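Model it.
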Amino acid sequence: MASGARAVARCDAIGAAPYSDTEYGLFRPYLGPAHRATIAKIDEWMQAAGMRTWIDPAANLVGRYEGAAPDARALLIGSHIDSVNDAGRYDGPLGVMLGIEVVAALAERQRRLPFAIEVIAFGDEEGSRFPASMMCSRAVAGTLDISATMISDGDGISLEQSLAAFGLERSRMTDAARSPESIIGYVEAHIEQGPVLESEGLAVGVVRGIAAQKRFAVTVTGQAGHAGTSAMHLRRDALAAAAEAILAVERVAQEGPADLVATVGRLAVSPGATNVVPGKVDFTIDVRAGRDEMRDAAAGQIIAAISAVADKRGVSLNIEESQRLAASPCDPVLMDRLAEAISSVGQPVRKLVSGAGHDAMVMASLAPTAMLFLRCTGGISHNPGESVDPADAELALAAMSAFVEGLAA
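Modeled.
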């Protein structure tokens, strides 16, 4: 019998090797061995639920449960199956597993709807391997710039080589694009990755929209020198300059509105020797806010602040924008239908904004979108401590099934 508890158990089952590229913990980057193994396992579950399956040109796994009429338009239910390093088990995969359970429940009753259901497991959302994120949903939505896919991972392995190992061609990734006329909507279930639902004693919530994002790659170049003979007042220490710049990033975000956040998540110091003054530092900046104009204003303030630091310290600075995602409101009609579905299973309706990015924000350019959030313990995510109560997953599945039946009616 279909169940939310089984969805959680399946996330646990793919939470370690061979479904992880690390021996301990979980790391499942796009197009790695663990990604391949995970596709094979989820493919089994999709077929057992009554779906026809295939891998699209962007290496997304898709399972289709036909509607009452052949070639009917489809409701897409999906999320991602890649992960950050040292990840939790539910960020992404739980949405895929719940989609499978929705279909399994229909198949058990031999129920066919006026539309087909396609469950899609996106291969890349996190951007944890290649210097881009949400490539796979962008390919499906038809917004992927193929010229931006000439990229390589940290080991120098190109996206082209990695796709070829899957029997796919980088130049044909955009063939994964779906026609808007073939899709009625996209719905994604996802852990909240924050503390709001838990703090209010709620199992599930409706997402109103997803925050705008910008990412930058920053290089600070100073002058490497001997740690013992380089006088302090003559140094052009790239790391000291980067440290001051990072504090400036934090200050701008702290002084802004409550929904403005900015993060430096990666830092690489060169040459990286104990007795050498650092000559170069590379770091990233991630800026998010509820509105595009708020994000852009903060990004401008950050760039001005770190430029001033570079001038003061006599180091050079290079800043490149690596990603821009607009704020993405969810579809009002689907939002209301999802709220009705939550009420129908006896739960209060709470609407909230997602500070985290999701494939839904990309898919909004293809079709109307809706998102269901599930409570996660302590609001913890991107961390092995990520935890979901199976009872909450049961409620989420009930709400998703009611949502689907509401669309069918």
